Amino acid sequence: MTTAAIDTSETKEYFINMGPQHPSTHGVLRLLLTLEGEIIKNVEPHIGYVHRAIEKMCEKSSFQQIIHLTDRLDYLSCHMNNEAVCLAVEQGLEMEVPERVKVIRTIIDELNRISSHTLWWGVMGMDMGAITSFLYGFREHEMITEIFEETCGARLTMSYNVPGGLMFDIPPHFQKMVKDFLVHFKKKLPEYDTLLSNNIIFTERTKGIGYLSKENAIAFGVTGPSARASGFACDVRKLKPYSAYHKVNFKEIIFTEGDCFARYKARIDEMWESVSIIEQLIDNIPEGDYFVKTKAVIKLPVGEYYQSVESARGEFGVYIVSDNKKNPYRVKFRSPGFANLSALNKIAQGCKIADLVAIMSTLDLVIPDIDR
Amino acid sequence: MKILSIYDFSNLTQAIHTWLSGKMSVVSTQVVEMILVGTVFLLFFAVLGLVLVYAERKVCAIIQVRLGPMRVGKWGTAQTLADFIKLVFKEPLITRDADKFLFNLAPFIIIIASFMAVAVMPFAKGLQAMDFDIGLFYISAVSSIGVTSILIAGWASNSKYSLIGAIRSGAQILSYELSAGLSLLTIVILTGSLQLSEIVESQADGWWIWKGHVSSIIAFVIFIIAGTAETNRGPFDMAEAESELTAGFHTEYSGIKFAFFFLAEYVNMFIIAAIGATVFFGGWMPLHVGNFEAFNNIMDYIPSVVWFFMKVSAIIFLMMWFRWTFPRLRIDQLLTLEWKYLLPLSLMNILLMAFLSLMGWHF
Questions:
Q1: How many CB pairs below 8 Å do chains A and B form together?
Q2: Which of B22, B32, B56, B312 gives a 20 to 30 Å CA spacing to B50?
Q3: Nearest CA of chain A to the CA of B359: how many Å?
Q4: Cα distance from B121 to chain A (closest Cα, Å)?
């Protein structure tokens, strides 16, 4: 059923609503597809089904409370989101947090990235029809979640950061747990390649599919692994190192193919880099305080503060305008999912429905992150 | 090389026939026997569906490092039954503007097609409802009736997802029917008969998969690929493709009508596995190795029906293994695989087999 075989003058375009309830939109995202047979002519994302006005709620909340709202954006990289707000507030207070805090934040960041990527890997496989990978991905995701639970009591919405440091100190067996996990994970990561990356069906489905050029990646503001797969070096950890990232050696994973497989591979390789970052830090957690005491009511000096971090999906930015009150005057989140989604139409045109699923998986969309 | 007579079902069927003939006229004997056979097949279908769904869940659970159903009954054995009861009591929804007659007709066609195919299956020695001289041809003919049901279901649902799924499925099943048929023909060259009982008998001194050299192995590989595609199972579950089309052609079906499609999928899997076992692995014929008499005698002690179901289970396991480890192909890749690779390969394979057969190079 190639396009050449069909006389398109006799066929008619038609519309399909993909979503808001659809297995592969992974949330309430509605895509209005214009199709010609199975060929996609246009993709129009309709968002807002889980819009909770989080930015508006932030204006009514104190700076400590904002952190708990950011968990509900991209729930898979909640710690990075928390950290972005904390860093912005600390920037406003001109506060220097202890080295211990920086290192612990970085370790949890990377654990969070691995957990997000393992879940993404599982879901990616499921979207491509290999349901087994979902369970394998969740197995590792679950182990990290248990580490988080031991550390801060929460499994998904952690809120482990507070302005000035961390909510609790790490538990005494934290290092052992993380090391045990890394030993396990380094054995299992090659299994991921066996199951999907080296599978001929999978490579056929992803290689050369859904091309995003570097120019388009920049033009649409695509960040994270999705953009780095197109050759756009945009890793905030490299460009504007925060926490302890200036102390560790890691590669920025860059591919130039720009197709689904490159985006897939970028995330797989990123997991290896995360493992290496954690390994460099886990034995070198400095002694000291795990927080700096702040006032019960934090008031930022009048001004604008922007802090971006590299979340699992790309650049997550927090923009705070303060008028020296206990609530911020205005808060804006730069969520990576929203920008990445905007490129979907460009990438998906001319592809088939099955390709669209692959493209959406490799863009790794999290709907609450898009809708806010 | 004789099958132990205690395992020969023809004694049993003959006894029933004689007993019935003594009681009533020829016509009523016929009618009663038909009803008997029909009832047995209905029961067999129900049990088959339950067992296969349970087996699939457990196999998939083992592959996915989890336990699978464990709560209902011992090791979750009654889970499928519970699900079936749930489906029966569900409301049968029909979409607005759906073609009600066709919508309701479609599930029956697919079930009837599967029913008809099972009719000629040689389950054991003497246990075969009908023994056509064109059995193999008959099976491949009736098993393609199922596709009309899928097309009808997709068309009548008045849903675009269903329609895309149905059209995909139509293209897919029609294409793979060719390869499946040709790979079976490859073995028919050796057997010289389309009659299933004769195909089984011809493998008394070894199964065709061994006797037919590399050619029959190629034929089997093609058959299992085409067979998996014909049953619409992963990695060829294009018609369902739940991540793309929610549930493909049966998106709009619910309740017992959905259960029919579900059951048909598993029965079709059984049929494909049974044909594969019969044609390539000797059906109910025990494993015999040349002149190794002692070994052959021991093998003969295992009832033929056990042999049949062992082989079928092995092939079904293989198909489940496919489904739970491979990603799904895209529709154009699927058709490319068939028309550019499998079909030319099976045509050449037939030539090769004809050559081998002419030269007498098979065992």
A1: 82
A2: B32
A3: 37
A4: 32
Average pLDDT score over chain A: 86
Residues of chain A positioned with their CB less than 8 A from the CB of B329: 201, 204-205
Q: Among B326, B334, B339, which would you mutate to test the A interface (most chain A Cβ atoms within 10 Å of its Cβ)?
A: B326
Which tokens hold the place of B18? Answer: 């004689």
Using a CB–CB cut-off of 8 Å, the residues of B that contact A are 60, 63-66, 160-161, 164, 171, 234-235, 237, 241-246, 324-333, 335
Q: Is B78 inside any structural domain? A: no
Instruction: Kindly state whether residue B79 falls inside one of the protein's structural domains.
Output: no
Smallest Cα distance from B197 to chain A, Å:
38
Question: B215 burial class (0-12, 13-18, 19+ CB within 10 angstroms)?
Answer: buried
Interchain contact, A201 vs B235, CB within 8 Å: yes
Q: Which of B258-295 are b and which e, b meaning 16 or more Cβ less than 10 Å from the residue's Cβ? A: bbbbbbbbbbbbbbbbbbbbbbbbbbbbbbbeeeeeee
Q: What is the pLDDT of residues B84-121, one digit of tens each?
A: 888 888 887 887 878 888 888 888 888 888 888 888 88
**Cα first-last separation, chain A:** 40
Lookup result for tokens 């029906």: B305
Residues A201, A184 contacting (CB under 8 angstroms)? no
Distance from CA of B288 to the nearest CA of A (A): 37
Low-confidence ranges of chain B (pLDDT < 70): 1-8, 239, 241-243, 290, 361-363
Q: Between the CA of residue A220 and those of A209, A215, A300, A341, A350, what are the distances in Å? A: 19, 9, 32, 9, 19
Task: State whether residue A268 is helix, strand or coil.
Answer: helix
Instruction: Note down the domain range covering B102.
Output: 3-10+91-359
Q: Give the residue among B345, B342, B70 at the shortest CA–CA distance from B230.
A: B342
Q: What is the spatial distance between Cα B342 and Cα B257, in angstroms, rounded to a whole number?
A: 34
Is B18 part of any domain? no
* pLDDT tens digits for range B310-338: 888 999 998 888 888 888 888 888 888 88
Q: Which of B65, B330, B335 sits opposite A205 (nearest CB)?
A: B330
Place of tokens 């990123």: A270
Residues across chain A? 372
Of A23, A196, A202, the CB nearest to B243: A23
Option in A126, A136, A196 nearest B243 (CB): A126
Q: Which of A134, A198, A201, A207 to mutate to test the interface with B (most CBs of B within 10 A)?
A: A201
- Residue A16: partners with Cβ closer than 8 Å, 6 or more residues away: A32, A33, A35, B160, B161
What DSSP state is assigned to residue A352?
Answer: B
Q: What is the number of domains present in chain B?
A: 1
Within-domain flag for B47:
no
